[in-house]
Amino acid sequence: RVAEALGVSTMALYRYVTSKDELLVLMYDAGLADLRPPGPEARLLGPAPDGAPAWRARLLEWFEAQLAAVRRHPWLMQAATSIPAPGPRQLALLESGLEALDGTALPPEQRLGVVGAASLLVLSEGTILAAAARRGAPSEDAPATGDEAVHPALVDYATLLRTLADPATHPRIVEALDAGAFDDAPDEVIPDDGVAFRVGLFLDGVEALVARAVDERRASDGGTSDPDRDD
């Protein structure tokens, strides 16, 4: 299909790439070329809370830029699990995630752990966003074929669980159903605040980790750590 779109023979492509895997790496890297946060009206996550540390605002922008790229190019999530090695823009993305944590009390191995966990969260949330995009209005670079499987997160779980949950054995599920916890907002394929809540929950956890690292550093320094650090 690539060769046909370019008007060349299939074998001619191998003058430029050695395999389909290499082509996927290049495609994925090209899809990250316009990695940027969207305008205020299109944001999924919203601004950082008032008084939030600078690292949190930077990491929030890091999340937002990637999720915005997935909404523009849903096929990125299909390629994400197939590429054998990171391209230059993926390495830059890892670098910028680590850079977001500059100035915190976290040691390098914990910063890498945070960015690794954050990347997995982007992958899971991005997969849901991509599925929602394919289910709704298809983008120009990923037209709907009509046979896409519905992502489990997009299933009407409220109706499904009301059929399956037994108050005697699943009282907490029934309680959540009665409270409307499984209900989507009207006319929304995926509630935006669901993504914001989960990313915010993750960042709250990182904030607790940073605070613990600050306490440990102060204890080891005898209370003389620099109070002006971005902790």
Record keyword descriptors for this entry:
231 residues; mainly alpha; flat; 0% strand; 55% helix
Short description:
This protein is mainly α and 231 residues long. It is built from 9 helices and no strands. Residues 138-147 and 186-191 have low confidence and may be disordered.
General description of the model:
The chain has 231 residues and is mostly helical. The protein contains nine helices and no strands. It has helices at 2-6, 20-31, 54-72, 75-80, 88-100, 108-135, 157-164, 171-178, 192-220. Helix 3 (54-72) runs parallel beside helix 6. The chain is flat. The N and C termini lie far apart (51 Å). 21% of the residues are buried. Mean pLDDT is 83; it is low at 138-147 and 186-191.
Mean pLDDT: 83
State the order of secondary-structure elements, H for helix, E for strand: HHHHHHHHH
C-alpha termini separation: 51 Å
SS summary, helix count: 9
Beta-strand level of the residues, as a percent range?
Answer: under 5%
Outline the low-pLDDT stretches: 138-147, 186-191
What gyration radius follows from the Cα positions, in whole Å? 22 Å
Number of strands: 0
Q: What gross morphology would you assign?
A: flat
Sheet with the most strands? none
**Broad structural category:** mainly alpha
Helix content: 55-70%
Task: Please write out the topology.
Blueprint: H1 2-6, H2 20-31, H3 54-72, H4 75-80, H5 88-100, H6 108-135, H7 157-164, H8 171-178, H9 192-220
